[in-house]
Amino acid sequence: MTQILRKKETSAREQTRARILDLLARQEHPEEIAQLLGVGIATVYNLQKRFLAEGLAAALSDKPRCGKPPVIQPEEKARLTALACSDAPPGYARWTLRLLADKVVELGYVESISHTEVGRILKKTRSNLIAKSNGVSGKSRANI
After folding, report:
1. Distance (Å, rounded) from C-alpha 35 to C-alpha 3?
2. CA–CA distance, 24 with 44 (Å, rounded to integer)
3. Quick one: which H or E segment has residue 53?
4. Cβ burial 19-36 (10 Å sphere, 16+ → b, else e)
5. Do 18 and 55 fall into the same domain?
6. Which domain holds residue 110?
7. How many domains does the chain have?
8. DSSP state of 64
9. Model-level pTM?
10. Would you state the pLDDT for residue 94?
11. Dist CA 68 CA 46 (whole Å)
């Protein structure tokens, strides 16, 4: 256990788990361990249970998570961002999330995508590409 605690390559989560197991081995009370390490009491009990059932390696590492596959790949995200930066379609002053979602599907970038997912993707860019302003209020512009 002390070898794991001395390694510099281990993650903080793995270090915390090793500390919990070390303190449990020293007969410390789970509530004291939780308070000392800043984790929930359930974490201590769950880790102890997992260690007893599956062993040290399983207790220290995370189980693989299935997760939902990404809806849109990085290349398509770039195309979506470029589309949002382009001029709005005729009859519209600016791109809306629904218009962008429909256009991305129409252009064949993805099979389907919701307007909320389009908003999440664009939110991760440095600026809001679909907003009317760049975020500077009129009051602030007067002082510039």
Report:
1. 24
2. 9
3. helix 41-54
4. bbbebbeeeeebeebbee
5. yes
6. 74-123
7. 2
8. P
9. 0.47
10. 92
11. 25
